Amino acid sequence: MSASRGSHRDRHGRGLRRPILAGLFKVGESRLASFGQIVSGTCDYLKAAWPDELDKLKWRIIDAPVIKDSTEQVARWSVNKKAFEITIYRLPIERMGHSRRPDALDERMHIEQYVFTAVGELIDKDPWELIPDRYRKDD
What we know:
By secondary structure, this protein is α+β, with helices and mostly antiparallel strands. It has one domain: Zincin-like, CATH 3.30.2010. Helix content is about 35%, strand content about 10%. It contains four helices and three strands, in the order ααβββαα. It has helices at about 30-50, 50-55, 90-95, 105-120, and strands at about 60, 75-80, 85-90. The chain has a three-stranded mixed β-sheet. The longest helix is centred in the first third of the chain and has 19 residues, at about 30-50. It is globular and about 65 Å long.
């Protein structure tokens, strides 16, 4: 007795096809997870570099800010000094204001730039001042 045409997964009976390299990459690794890891890693780095100033730093990631009719530019971050918290907006950073990044390092640096800027605004420092001593020039 032959099986009906739709009962087989493929015409050779080997099961579902999948990409050859599928096993080499983590399943579920999403853009949001990688974006979150970069933001978290950058905040942890800054907390370690500036322990006195950033000990209580909190951060969160939201897809996008609330847009109002009077908004001329889409925010990439916001700062809440009272709560000592920065909010990083993922979609504007990933999709607006730049062409596709050629590699992962460029994308990481692009995201880190906004984290440094937000933290600098939070503690009233220029983002370049947040770079460790070995990169600063003596005045």
